[in-house]
Design goal:
mainly alpha; globular
């Protein structure tokens, strides 16, 4: 009996040693959120995952805060109360946190900062404040972003550069940034060239429209996707055939009775065309 008890105790001890709880692995560094970040975000947003970087954490937390703001706005309006979304917007609280990460060259934070840089415009008094420091910061962020971004981030960065042409950047500077992005990632070239062409086609001067035509043709040569090529062709056709003062292209269709109707039949007469559809 004593021997059995001793064996049982020995076996139990061996089992205890073998089954000693494994210490939990250390949490990834990405989960070590700075106190300021957690305070602004109100804690971790729902669905937070270990692989989220700090910038991705902020993006998710900001999106959650904005959804909550819009829900409060809808509820207030349903009660017949006023709601000022400008003062309730959570974005200003997050800006310093994104700025701190952008200063560390975090790609997601850099992209957020350049996307949320307000264009420089005259104020209501007519006085112009060029915000030289803000312009310099934007250019620095954009240059750093284009150097580090990949794939869709690169396209987004180029889109920001194009969008700021004539405001924070000149059109020529925007084109230079786009060329730098294209040189870095040939796969994004067709998309970037198309975006730049669309911006150029909105200008009123002939030189810009000529440049847009060349860019669309370049995009067609670069693009490999059939559906996207068709869209580019449509934009090119509109640029060269659907401008004010041009002769209308030949159009034909059927009316409600199945009769063929041609635009040429109305030549010399004031004609109003209305296009509509479902998408």
């Amino acid at each position: 009996m004593k021997l059995t008890a001793v064996l049982m105790v020995a076996a139990l001890a061996a089992g205890l040693v073998a089954q000693e709880p494994v210490k939990p692995a250390a949490q990834p560094a990405t989960l070590a959120r700075p106190a300021a970040m957690l305070r602004v975000a109100g804690g971790a947003p729902a669905g937070d995952a270990a692989e989220l970087t700090e910038a991705q954490f902020l993006l998710r937390a900001l999106a959650k805060a904005q959804r909550e703001m819009f829900a409060r706005s809808d509820a207030a309006r349903a009660r017949g109360e006023s709601f000022n979304e400008m003062t309730e917007d959570p974005t200003p609280r997050y800006r310093p946190l994104f700025r701190a990460l952008a200063d560390k060259n975090d790609v997601d934070a850099l992209l957020w900062c350049v996307q949320h840089t307000s264009p420089v415009r005259p104020d209501r008094s007519g006085e112009v404040d060029d915000h030289a420091a803000a312009r310099a910061a934007f250019r620095k962020d954009l240059a750093a972003l284009l150097e580090r971004a990949k794939d869709r981030q690169l396209v987004s960065a180029a889109s920001v550069a194009i969008g700021h042409g004539g405001e924070t950047l000149t059109a020529a500077e925007a084109e230079q940034y786009c060329e730098a992005a294209i040189a870095k990632d040939a796969a994004a070239a067709a998309t970037i060239v198309t975006i730049l062409a669309e911006r150029m086609m909105d200008e009123s001067d002939d030189a810009s429209r000529t440049k847009a035509t060349a860019l669309f043709e370049r995009a067609l040569a670069l693009e490999t996707d059939a559906a996207r090529k068709q869209r580019i062709s449509g934009r090119l056709f509109a640029l060269n055939n659907l401008r004010v003062g041009m002769k209308a292209p030949a159009l034909s269709g059927t009316d409600l009775e199945g009769k063929t109707v041609s635009l040429a039949d109305y030549k010399g007469r004031v004609t109003f065309l209305e296009f509509w559809g479902f998408w």
